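Ticket #4471: structure output looks truncated?

Reporter: J.K.
Steps to reproduce: submitted the chain below (413 residues) through the standard prediction queue, then opened the result file.
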Amino acid sequence: MPDFTTFSVLFFTRNLKRNTTDLSIYARITVNGKCSEMSLKRKTSVNEWDNSKGRLRGNTPQIKKLNSYLDQVYSQLLDTHKKLLEKDSLITAAKIKASYLGLDEDHKTLKDIISYHNIKMKDVLKWGTLKNYYTTARYLEEFLRSEKNTDNIFLKYINYQFITEFEMFLRGYRPKKHRKTCGTNGTMKHLERLQKLLNLAVKLEWLEKNPFKNYSLKFETSERQFLTERELEKLSHTYFKSESLERVKDMFLFACYSGLPYIDLKELTNDKIVKGMDGKDWIYTKRKKTQQAVKIPLLCSAKVILKKYRDNNVNNENKVFPVISNQKINKYLKEIMQSVGIRKKITFHSARHTFATTVTLSNGVPIETVSKILGHSKLSTTQIYARVLENKLSSDIGKLDQIFEERRKISGN
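Returned output as attached by the reporter:
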């Protein structure tokens, strides 16, 4: 424990420059005979101040309010002194003042936790994920600048109100570039990243509790687009004269028949296609996103496409497909879908939904098997992709109806 310290707080006044009737109120913190003073940004008249009591005299509502504020400051300074004592640290008047004002080294800011997170996670998170944190940080900076008239904020001042105000800012903010404003799910993703940053601050003991405790993230369930069996068949039998469109179509179809996401298809090399124990072709790879190992038995439709690109060599890297950027692929896909008359908002990731829904689950492949092929660590993740198509639903209910009919015949009813 630190040596015994003497501690006191005194409120006093000073004359305002060029004003003989008003006084400015100060607080003097004294520890072991050494003091530190700070202005409380409040003023009173000469006639109202009582030097002996260090308070205002009178019973008007304004005087009562100001005296109540001084009592509050006194109580907070006592509490600050107590917390510093509990930390077994050297107590000084200057340190109490700094801690009270939030200027001491123990009070971290929002920028501190953002910087700490991005440095520590640089080699842990994938670039796409880290880039999203940079975007959230830019939104926070803009929010602080435009709504709070500051460029930073102490973590201890982030509360429920801050979160809800940031949410409203995200929903209404219109960027200078021609981009859409954040929808509900986009807004929730930014708040989710802020929540994770504050959770990290709690773990680092930079923050006592996470202000998200009473806040609930509310995502909207989005309708995930995929191709039906008829649409998949139609696309498979369409040939494009444009080499670029034909290549993108083939890559999309290969993803539909293998379940590979864009980034894993981009990194797919010929050495990852091997013969399995059954003597058939398999893809042995690792998910870029989760580092989860996946083994995918190749369907005949996928092998046909694979054979078409077997001898392709991109930049001497032995890549299976000459993959272009995801943005460019989605642009071509939009053109492809319009050409074949598919009026759905299809992106390259829709191929993964198509594999899970149309190619596997609707054809009776157990969801556990589909989960393994997709490289999911949790079955609940696969259930997001799972859909009960109308024809499958009709078929299953038809079989159930047939069972009941046979039972009725046996019972004679």
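Triage note (M.O.): checked the attachment and the full token line is present. DSSP finds 15 helices and eight strands in the chain.
Status: closed, working as intended.
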